[in-house]
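Friendly challenge for the regulars: who can give me the structure tokens for this chain first? No prize, just bragging rights.
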Amino acid sequence: MSVKNLFTVAALTSLLAGVLLTLFQLIQVIPAVIEAEGYEQTVSSQSAHSHEQGHQHDEEAWAPADGLERNLFTAAANVVIALGFSLLLGAAAMWRGKKLDWRSGLLWGLAGYAVFFVAPSLGLHPELPGTEAADLQLRQLWWLATVACTAAGLALLFFNRRYALKALGVVLIVVPHVIGAPQPDVHTALAPDELIHSFITATIVSNAVFWLALGGLYGFFSQKLAH
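First reply, four minutes later:
Bragging rights claimed.
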């Protein structure tokens, strides 16, 4: 596949996959986030009223308004993220010398789901606003290390025939979870448990749909442009 075709396929794939992800998020993910933000704002308001009068507080950072504006920004962000992952998938397929169709694309999408969502989520669960979390930089470093180790581990498991390297692949996949993700000293959340569980389930489902769509669509468009 030429570089031009790679970008064309990635653009088409990211547009459809990003919009599909947004539609799934609109059903449960975004409503759960908005509800959790309500709990957070209530606590912040109560805390502000408990301060002595005369203290000045920093203005809240800008954020898109709920409704159409927020949904459009979410869709735009999802499309951009999907574009990046589509290009990464295409580059990996080109490196392997593989011509994808929608069936093989689904397998690559499943691998992406395992690498970029499932593996990191085993240590760092999807979190709602108002949830106490560990240091951001430490979480980002652990996430990156987990993604890299999982990707390398899966490559060693499926792309070579030497059992020693397959064993190394298993070790790479397991190591980040043996070390453990950074956690806060005390786990607290403002949202009720039912909302948290609903949000985690919705996030798992929406990401699965996104990655399978990303892989399947990339394979589909890649095969069409190859003819």
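The helical segments are 3-50, 68-96, 102-121, 136-158, 163-179, 193-226. The chain has two domains: 1-40+66-126+193-227, 132-188. Your move, everyone else.
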